[in-house]
Design brief:
heterotrimer, A alpha+beta (412), B alpha/beta (554), C mainly alpha (335), B: 554 residues, alpha/beta, six-stranded mixed β-sheet, 26% strand, C: 335 residues, mainly alpha, MetI-like fold, two-stranded antiparallel ribbon, 2 strands, 78% helix, 1% strand
Chain lengths: 412, 554, 335
């Protein structure tokens, strides 16, 4: 052990030993702990030819991982939430009760679902008393006051008819998951400064936010993995130069750079170009850390015995990379992906909060947070912060999933 | 308790006939571990007795429970271990199983000490040697720091470490494995314990160092009248160093007896099986000169390494293989023997072009291959194969057995269609002694010995002429080792294979090789027919090696 | 030791150089510049477009905004290297160096404080969690750490801001001190006032870092507790607390120190994010503000300074590692 590089290498070697142990397929929690306790080097030696004594049934490595994953509570919760998220996002218009572009009463508070009827009796059918201007003026500000309209309750139901849309952009429909029975607008999370329903916008906005996140993460993953594997496997001069480049990229203070890059995006550009820019900006730095980690693993794997056996057998680089290195690196990469997606979603929201977001008619969570910077607005109309909840749920869901995956893949 | 086993009663056969004092009496030790899906009974019912001044050996293969037994005496088991309340361990009359934790702590490092298998990781890397020795002294005695340091220096002298004064201020990573083990012994003996437990103390050391350490323990034991429990799997060590032997298998004692008698008259079938597993036999008789299959001329491999701290880096060249010649004849097994750092593995792998040569020539079947590109080497690859030491890292855990063995066939275009390849795979597995219905299983389902057989099957599926065997049995249990040796001999006979056999274990070399080359520090020290070298070594180093391997004498 | 330091510092210079070129180019590529800002301001105040245009052109001339990019860059760099002159801030009408000197120290002090607190608490909690593995304490701590690592810091900042502003009627955001303490000499009361103003920033940034440290420490300690030398320590008869604290923890700290390269930017980013939300007079809002108006030298300098800070932080981390680990300090010369 000499320099800092050697300590990093030692950490890499620990990683290598972990990889090797994992690569050896030794189920760590049981085998190694118990092995240490028992002073055993590995699995108990049985009569060599009596393979029937091995009582584990036909189990592929993947199935083992699934079993471990299923045992992780956070992982299962995450999986359910993420699936739900994507499902809602794909069928966004189905789930949105109101047309996200239509304007109603500005800054109206969330409609409360009540089960009481006008005279105070209990009724099973949920209803909402919509907000209307009561005709009175606020004594101080002389702004019209708003309040619930008890004269005209809106009954709610599932699978109601509402504003028209197209499923997958093709099939016309007007059925919505939940909303007013008679098609009138209901605002469960209130409306924003232009009177648009927040809940519907948030649901539809998930599309863009998740889309950006998925694309960015795909790019960074592909680039990061490719760079990492090439650097680690081929080594030599390619490795040295690539690592120097990665070091420079990693030295950039990330947030300020994103801020700087987003100012590059011309305000007048059409939406598609704008999204492409945002994606490019966010992907610019994100691949570096992953490439470092993949490189570490590739370095270890390039020296492991079964890879050398493949070389001894005459396998070419391509075959070795795709059949031996990539599969063993993939598990780590998958975990990194599930952790990266919420990071990008967060970044997009933060940039939106600062004023750098997609432009209407597109909707994203970042855009929805753009107006929340002023104190007075938050004070009077706190419900415009609701997109925060969506971001929180998304972040939580993916992180939980990532945690579960990590425990399944790398139980150390 | 295997009540039908009269070979392993709870009491020793020579109890009461000893002149010596009974220091440790363990009865009915039973330990179980809680694991994910249930319990594992690591030790079922073990009893043994120890007198002062003697060494008893506990012998077993992996999974026998010998290490757990040792740790039970010290009270070093993890939280998941449960020791049966019927277990008793009397140390000089007191039942230490009934001791409170603080009483046990007083015992450890004081009256009962333990040294472990891995010297490389047994010492804390961030403290100096002196600090670590003083720690155990000041823990159990009221002495000042200066006095403790003086005692530490004296201890280092006792364990024959040169320049003890300087060593006190050094850190563990600056010492070799053998020296670290000596320091461990110094720490263990610092407070003149009554009992020393040595858990495989030399398994991770070179064979010459091994002999030195074991003789050191013997010397100190005699000097202080200690009692020693020696845990090991190596029968040679047992034969030379212990007075009484306990043979364990799967958590039970199968047989125990005085050493000489046990080796002369093993009674339990397992003991017999174990003794029979010592590498025996010799290489197949050689046909007359059939030509050279692999030749190396002035092969040189050097690495540039860095030493010196972060603030004063210093580069130097390490010549792993220093211009060596080698020639391997057909159907022959050539042994390449040496200790760690000798360069034997590097040499072997350089010969089959898995490691880069800095200079020299390698000829395979008369054709120079040292300058060939990867692509040019490909057609030759199927003729030269390799089997590695570590059975756990040689098989890709994500590939099925079929895919693992098939890879070579696919890459080399052997076998015109899938069915023909399957035939070849089945034949290879069969020849390696594995059943052929395992094709869709995965490596983690198999034990070390079975995996090694699969690795051998992978090698022979390509019908090579030459196989590089890089310590193929070092990581295996004794009984499995014997089987693999038999298998290798059989395959050589049937297929006319040539082997380059790299090993540090002279006993295995004797059983398998025709000729042997002894390496040290990148050079060949001596070479010749195996019987000559092993019975009549000419050079000093070879002599030391042979003595250490067969008599465990320094 | 000195030679090592020199070598590392020299190695960071090319990195900084590349960084400065890249950031400079990026900043200057933005559509519109300070001249546009002047124009917009004047028009908003009622000047005619012609007048505003003239003023904008004058500003451009004065600040050399019409020179080609490479010329501007070279001028800037020579200014830095020879005179220590980082350029002129159009918006504040002061030398950039002054602006930086005003804003950077609070940022660094805050980030450092958060970092130290996060380390102390994170490591302690990590030790507790590792030694009580599988107990309810461990599960609780792991849960808290999970929350800490997933809850986005700027969102937390917004929520706290909301609560403070509207539920608790707190005032005086955006400053470090209440008006009465502004220029007053240091006293205990002033310190308390300072804490009252900055606690959200410290809390939020620390919380995230703490969670991360705790995770890493717990993992490392669990690994270390399986090491052979830990068993040796027990075999000597040491009490368990000494085994953990004296033998295991120092070894578990190493990877943590080596990870400073990842943690430092994280802490810095956190501090910046939260400070932006709270408009505290530190680096974050300054960068955002200057980018919005095209105050290019301010932006470029801040980026450069931040990058330099991170690189220096890495060097310090390396030295710290050498101090902790004798294997790094002294090479292995086996006799």
């Amino acid at each position: 052990m000499t320099s800092i590089d050697d300590i990093r290498k030692q950490a890499e070697r620990r990683e290598e030993r972990k990889t090797a142990a994992e690569a050896q397929g030794v189920s760590p929690a049981t085998a190694i702990d118990v092995a240490d306790d028992l002073g055993v080097e590995g699995l108990v030696e049985t009569n060599p030819v009596d393979v029937t004594a091995v009582d584990r049934s036909d189990q592929s490595y993947r199935r083992l991982m699934f079993r471990r994953f299923r045992r992780s509570i956070s992982g299962m919760i995450g999986l359910v939430l993420v699936s739900l998220l994507f499902f809602v996002s794909v069928f966004a218009y189905f789930f949105a009760p109101v047309d996200p572009k239509a304007s109603y009463l500005a800054f109206s508070p969330p409609d409360a679902v009540s089960f009481t009827s006008r005279d105070g009796g209990f009724s099973l059918r949920p209803r909402v008393y919509p907000t209307i201007e009561t005709g009175e003026l606020d004594p101080i500000t002389f702004q019209p006051l708003t309040g619930p309209d008890y004269e005209n309750p809106i009954d709610l139901g599932f699978f109601v008819r509402g504003f028209p849309y197209r499923i997958f952009g093709l099939i016309p429909s007007d059925i919505h998951f939940f909303g007013a029975v008679d098609g009138r607008p209901v605002h469960f999370l209130g409306t924003d400064k232009l009177g648009r329903d927040i809940l519907s916008r948030a649901i539809v906005g998930s599309r863009i936010s998740l889309f950006i996140a998925v694309i960015v993460v795909t790019i960074t993953t592909v680039v990061g993995t490719t760079v990492g594997i090439s650097s680690g496997y081929f080594g030599g001069r390619i490795d040295t130069w690539v690592q120097r480049f990665v070091e420079i990229v990693l030295a950039f203070p990330q947030l300020p750079l994103y801020l700087a890059l987003t100012t590059l995006i011309p305000i007048t550009a059409p939406s598609n170009v704008f999204i492409a820019f945002v994606i490019a900006v966010l992907a610019a730095l994100g691949w570096a850390q992953l490439s470092r980690e993949v490189r570490g693993k590739s370095l270890a794997l390039a020296r492991i015995e079964y890879v050398r056996a493949a070389m001894a057998v005459g396998a070419g680089d391509g075959r070795i990379i795709f059949r031996h290195i990539l599969p063993n690196v993939l598990s780590h990469v998958i975990v990194a992906v599930t952790i990266a997606i919420p990071t990008v979603v967060l970044l997009e929201s933060f940039l939106g909060f600062l004023g750098f977001a997609v432009k209407p008619p597109l909707i994203s969570w970042g855009l929805m947070l753009q107006d929340t910077g002023t104190f007075s607005v938050i004070g009077s109309y706190p419900w415009i912060l609701s997109p925060v909840a969506f971001v929180l749920v998304t972040v939580f869901a993916f992180n939980a999933l990532g945690d579960g995956l990590r425990d399944a893949v790398d139980p150390y | 308790m295997d009540t039908a086993n009269t070979f392993a009663p709870a009491e020793r056969f020579d109890l009461g006939t000893h002149g010596r004092e009974l220091i440790l009496d363990a009865r009915n030790i039973a330990v179980s571990f809680k694991v994910e899906d249930g319990h594992i009974e690591a030790v079922k019912d073990v009893s043994f007795q120890l007198h002062s001044g003697e060494t008893i050996a506990i012998v077993g293969e992996s999974g026998s429970g010998k290490s757990v037994t040792a740790r039970t005496v010290m009270g070093l088991l993890s939280r998941r271990a449960k020791v049966s309340p019927d277990s008793h361990i009397w140390l000089d009359g007191d039942d230490i199983r009934r001791y409170s934790p603080s009483q046990m702590r007083e015992l450890r490092g004081n009256r009962v000490s333990m040294i472990f298998q891995e010297p490389m990781s047994s010492l804390n890397p961030v403290f100096t040697i002196g600090a670590q020795i003083c720690e155990v002294l000041r823990l159990h005695n009221r002495i000042s720091k200066t006095d403790a340091m003086k005692r530490a220096k004296a201890l280092l002298e006792e364990v024959h470490i040169p320049e003890p004064e300087a060593r006190l201020r050094q850190y563990p990573h600056q010492l070799s494995g053998g020296q670290r083990q000596r320091v461990m012994i110094a720490i263990a003996l610092a407070n003149r314990p009554d009992v020393l437990i040595a858990d495989e103390p030399t398994t991770a050391l070179d064979v010459t160092v091994q002999a030195q350490i074991l003789n050191l323990i013997k010397e100190l034991k005699a000097k202080y009248g200690m009692a020693v429990i020696l845990i090991t799997h190596d029968l040679t060590i047992v034969r030379h160093f212990s007075d009484y032997v306990y043979v364990m298998q799967r958590g039970e004692v199968k047989e125990h007896n005085r050493t000489a008698e046990l080796f002369a008259n093993p009674r339990h079938p397992y003991t017999r099986h174990l003794l029979a597993s010592e590498p025996k036999g010799e290489a197949n008789p050689l046909v007359e000169d059939t030509g050279t299959v692999l030749e190396g001329r002035k092969v040189r491999v050097a690495f540039t390494l860095k030493r010196g701290g972060m603030f004063r880096p210093d580069y130097f060249d390490l010549v792993a293989v220093d211009s060596l010649d080698l020639d391997l004849r057909r159907h022959e097994t050539l042994g390449l023997v040496g200790e760690s750092g000798s360069g034997k593995t590097t040499f072997g792998q350089a010969l089959i072009r898995l490691v880069h040569l800095d200079s020299g020539e390698v000829l395979f079947d008369g054709v120079p291959i040292q300058d060939k590109t990867r692509r040019q080497m490909r057609p030759l690859r199927s003729r030269m194969q390799i089997v590695f030491q570590d059975p756990y890292a040689s098989l890709n855990p994500r590939m099925s057995i079929r895919q693992i063995i098939e890879e070579g066939l696919v890459v080399n275009g052997i076998g015109s269609d899938s069915r023909e390849r399957l035939e070849r795979i089945r034949t290879a597995l069969d020849q390696a002694g594995m059943p052929t219905n395992i094709l869709s299983r995965f490596p983690h389902e198999f034990s070390g010995g079975q995996r090694q057989r699969i690795a051998i099957a992978r090698a022979i599926a390509l019908e090579p002429e030459f196989i590089l065997l890089d310590e193929p049995t070092s990581a295996l249990d004794l009984s499995v080792q014997a089987q693999i040796i038999d298998l290798l001999r059989k395959l050589q006979d049937e297929k006319g294979l040539s082997y380059l056999f790299i090993s540090h274990d002279l006993k295995v070399v004797r059983a398998l090789c025709h000729r042997v080359m002894v390496m040290q520090h990148g050079k060949i020290v001596e070479q010749g027919p195996v019987n000559e070298i092993l019975t009549n070594p000419q050079t000093d180093y070879a002599r030391r090696l042979v003595r250490a391997a067969f008599e465990v004498a320094a | 030791m000195l030679r090592f330091l020199l070598k590392r510092i020299l190695a960071t210079i090319p990195v900084l150089f590349v960084l400065s070129v890249v950031t400079f180019s990026i900043i200057h590529s933005r559509p519109g510049d300070y001249g546009d800002f002047v124009y917009a301001m004047l028009v908003a105040r009622g000047s005619s477009t012609v007048e505003a245009q003239r003023a904008a052109e004058a500003a451009r001339e004065e600040y050399g905004l019409n020179d080609p990019l490479p010329v501007r860059y070279v001028n800037w760099i020579t200014g830095i290297v020879t005179r220590g002159d980082f350029g002129h801030s159009f918006y504040y009408n002061r030398p950039v160096a002054d602006v930086v000197a005003e804003r950077l120290p609070p940022t660094i002090i805050l980030a450092l404080t958060c970092h130290i607190l996060a380390t102390i608490f994170g490591v302690s909690l990590g030790i507790i969690a590792a030694t009580r593995q599988y107990s309810w304490v461990d599960t609780l701590i792991s849960f808290v750490s999970f929350i800490g690592m997933t809850v986005p810091r700027f969102l937390l900042a917004i929520i706290i801001l909301y609560i403070l502003a509207f539920r608790l009627n707190a005032q005086n955001f955006g400053t470090f001190f209440s008006p009465q303490f502004g220029g007053a000499p240091w006293s205990w009361a002033k310190f308390v006032d300072l804490v009252q103003h900055v606690w959200p920033v410290v809390f939020i940034a620390t919380f995230g870092g703490l969670a991360y440290n705790m995770r890493v420490m717990r993992g490392n300690l669990l690994d270390t507790l399986n090491a052979q030398y830990v068993e040796t320590a027990r075999a000597k008869g040491l009490p368990e607390s000494a085994v953990v604290l004296k033998h295991a923890v120092p070894n578990a700290l190493h990877p943590l120190v080596a990870y400073q390269g990842v943690v430092l930017p994280y802490m810095l980013t956190g501090e910046i994010e939260v400070a932006i939300v709270f408009s505290l007079a530190t680096v974050g809002p300054a960068i955002v503000g200057s980018m919005a108006v095209g105050d290019i030298y301010v932006t470029a300098t801040f980026m450069l300074v931040l990058a330099a800070t991170l690189l220096v932080g890495n060097i310090i981390a390396d030295i710290l590692l050498a101090a902790l680990d004798p294997r790094v300090r002294i090479g292995g010369a086996k006799a």
